[in-house]
Write a structure and sequence with these properties.
five-stranded mixed beta barrel, about 450 residues, five-stranded parallel β-sheet, 13 strands, elongated, Rossmann fold, alpha/beta, OB fold (Dihydrolipoamide Acetyltransferase, E2P)
Length: about 450
């Protein structure tokens, strides 16, 4: 059976197709009916295998379809693929025969609807945040008791009715001025900018920029860069109350205060009248209490001052008594000072007498007489010690002197030069020598030389 036969009407009897034949026929039918289409939906179940292909699903609130984006097309994507992104995908409807899965073979993807707006929202948010427009240091505090408030919103919208209702209930004395502006559509952003500039120059105590809920596209004027910069340039404290509690806009980040709803913005600026009355009553009670305490302290102070106040005559008597006391103290002080000075004079006179030169000379004279008496004794003792020392040295010298040797019968032979003859070989026969004895000298002549040797006995 060829491929053309697959598309012929099956017979009523019993024409049977294999599973692969059925899937092939279904795939070809799908590809012929849907050659190339655009499908919009939300990305989910994104898978990135190592092959470089992308597999994901596109879904809406009632259905989903499997998608395949092959590598040659995935490499040219300009969209950051992630789950939750709203996109438009171009491709052809097909069927994966191996599993019988119905799928979309995608060759191009672009952001769509909320996805594109969300991307633009994040880009502008990052830009303004980098410029510092969201810094808390730039936020101005809201006035505690505003008298005149400007409301920038649609004059016929539900938001303005909610704001007026809250002010009528909580603070009807506050003046509300509606600055009308479109809050949806292409003309909304320029109108909002003009309304903000006009209201900022009008001298309001505070501004409310508001609208009711809606889709991201409906709220988009409050995400425009021109509106954000106009809010940032306002010198008047500004509240952003755009949409419901879950809606977030760029104006919320730039404004001084974000309110989750228009009614909440009105409550922030409208003090509760009953609460103010209670606060005034409380302050009145505190004021009366403080006045009573202040009067009590003043009364006590007055009583103290009255007790301290005395008659001038009594004060003069006290001063006279004080003067007498000071006079007595002065006399005692003078007497004491004179006594101290006399004692000091006596002490100095005694010291002077002790250190008189005559007395010092007498002491020196006595000392000189004592030294004169000690000098002869000291000289005699010193001479005696030196004489004894000399005798000891003479005895020592005599013991080692050659003269002592001569006294024992020895003599010394001297030649003509007076040199001692120490050896027989130093003299010759007929030579004249001098023999020095203990008590004199003799002239002798050498007759002959007779050398001899000494030997030790064993």
């Amino acid at each position: 059976m060829n491929d053309d036969a697959l598309f012929k009407q099956l017979g009523a009897e019993r024409d049977v197709l294999s599973v692969s034949q059925l899937n092939a026929r279904a795939r070809q039918l799908l590809e012929d009916v849907f050659p190339r289409i655009w499908v919009e939906g939300e990305l989910s179940n994104l898978a990135r295998p190592s092959s470089g292909h992308l597999y994901f699903s596109l879904k809406d609130d009632r259905a989903q379809i499997r998608c395949a984006l092959f590598r040659q097309h995935a490499s040219r994507l300009k969209v950051a693929m992630k789950d939750g992104l709203q996109v438009r995908a171009r491709g052809r409807v097909s069927l994966y025969e191996g599993r019988g899965d119905y799928q979309l073979i995608v060759d191009s993807i672009e952001p769509a609807g909320d996805g594109a707006l969300r991307k633009a929202f994040e880009a502008l948010k990052a830009k303004l945040q980098a410029e510092g427009l969201f810094e808390q240091s730039l936020k101005r505090p809201l006035p505690a008791h505003p008298q005149r408030i400007g409301v920038i919103t649609s004059a016929s919208g539900a938001a303005v009715r909610d704001i007026i209702s809250v002010f009528q209930r909580r603070a009807p004395f506050i003046e509300l001025v509606i600055v009308p502006s479109a809050v949806q559509g292409r003309e909304a952003a320029p109108q909002l900018v003009r309304a903000l500039q006009q209201a900022d120059r009008a001298g309001f105590d505070a501004l409310i920029v508001s609208r009711g809920g809606g889709s991201l596209e409906d709220l988009w004027p409050f995400n425009e860069e021109m509106v954000a910069r106009a809010i940032a340039d306002c010198q008047t404290p500004t509240i952003s109350a755009v949409g419901h509690e879950t809606d977030i806009s760029i104006s919320d980040f730039v404004a001084d205060v974000r309110a989750p709803t228009p009614s909440a913005a009105a409550e922030l600026l409208s003090p509760d009248t009953q609460a103010l009355l209670r606060q005034v009553e409380q302050l009145e009670r505190r004021l009366l209490q403080r006045l009573r305490e202040r009067l009590g302290r003043a009364r006590l102070q007055l009583d103290n001052l009255r007790q301290r106040l005395r008659h001038p005559g009594e004060r003069l008597a006290q001063q006279a008594q004080r003067l007498d006391e000071l006079e007595l103290r002065l006399r005692r002080a003078l007497t004491q000072q004179l006594t101290q000075q006399q004692q000091q004079l006596t002490h100095l006179r005694t010291r002077l007498q002790t250190q008189h030169p005559g007395r010092h000379l007498s002491q020196l004279r006595d000392q000189l007489e004592q030294l004169e008496a000690r000098l002869p004794r000291a000289m005699h003792n010193q001479l005696k010690q030196q004489r004894q020392q000399l005798e000891q040295l003479a005895q020592t010298l005599h013991l080692v002197s050659p003269l002592a040797t001569l006294g024992r019968g020895y003599s010394i032979l001297l030649d003509d030069n007076g040199t001692a003859v120490r050896s027989a070989s130093a003299a010759s026969a007929g030579q004249r020598l001098k023999a020095r004895l203990h008590d004199g000298e003799l002239s002798v002549r050498v007759e002959a030389e007779t050398p001899y040797t000494l030997s030790l006995l064993d």
